[in-house]
């Protein structure tokens, strides 16, 4: 009987603890608490860190939604890669948005390459509308862009494999836009940096 009483007490305590954790999680948007189940402290979430002369840009990988792309990027972060750089940076126009129907030029993005050590990727994972701070692959390339505004005009054309976290967008916006030159392909006018901005890639934590 004493053993049965101990078991019942333990189960009731666990259920009560679970209710308290759930109530705290429900009370605060974005708050998540995991119960201690005897396996030690959880590691901080892994991040990809892009380091420039201006500052760092931390990315949270979407492993579940874009596993193939994330595996390539993570492996690159472990090796360090070579010739990684940003080569295109375009402002967010003042009247950008769905209410005006105007989406550039300029096109509200920072575009770069993962370098020649990475094979070109199809980019057929997690094709969803682009939100501000999303990091997406340019199809059939090794290049990517960071969106500095929402891009509903592109629909589901790009594979989103990460998002910028923390104050990373402040670093993105602080990177130079000039000197630059423009190209016209018969339909679109785009802006390209005269001097690419090198960056290093590594693994980090929040």
Explain this structure to me?
- This protein has 206 residues and is α+β, with helices and mostly antiparallel strands.
- 22% of the residues lie in helices and 27% in strands.
- It has three helices and eleven strands; from the N terminus they run H-E-E-H-E-E-E-E-E-H-E-E-E-E.
Descriptors for this entry?
disordered N terminus; alpha+beta; 3 helices; two-stranded antiparallel ribbon; 206 residues; nine-stranded antiparallel β-sheet
Task: Summarize it.
This protein is of the alpha+beta class and 206 residues long.
Helix content: 10-25%
Secondary-structure-based class equals alpha+beta
Q: What portion of residues belong to β-strands?
A: 25-35%
Order of helices and strands: HEEHEEEEEHEEEE
Rg, Å, rounded = 22 Å
Shape: globular
Strand neighbour order, sheet with most strands: 10-3-4-6-5-7-2-1-11
- What's the number of extended β-strand segments? 11
Low-confidence stretches: 3-44
Query: Helix count, per DSSP?
Result: 3
Mean pLDDT: 83
- Outline the biggest β-sheet: 9 strands, antiparallel
Q: Whole-Å distance between the termini?
A: 48 Å
